[in-house]
Write a structure and sequence with these properties.
Helix content: over 70%
Structural class: mainly alpha
Number of domains: 1
Oligomer: single chain
């Protein structure tokens, strides 16, 4: 698995759990026509946009905004 996708999954694991974090990133990648390991730091906007609806449903808007901001910072985007 490429470093970026691994970083995203590891970042989401404490909040979503390992399986859900992995499946969420797979869903985002599939919707963008790539495999998770093909995602790069330059795809952070696509990743955040893809994760936002699910996270907002699970965590609420404010927590989602904070989490995605932290994800951007973690990945260097």
């Amino acid at each position: 698995m490429a470093e970026f996708s691994k970083t995203v999954i590891e970042f989401l694991e404490p909040t979503l759990g390992k399986l859900t974090a992995r499946k969420a990133l797979e869903l985002v990648a599939t919707r963008n026509g790539v495999r998770p390991e093909q995602l790069r730091e330059s795809d952070i906007d696509k990743v955040c946009d893809g994760l936002r609806p699910m996270l907002r449903t699970l965590l609420g808007a404010a927590t989602t905004q904070q989490l995605l901001g932290d994800l951007r910072a973690r990945t260097g985007a």
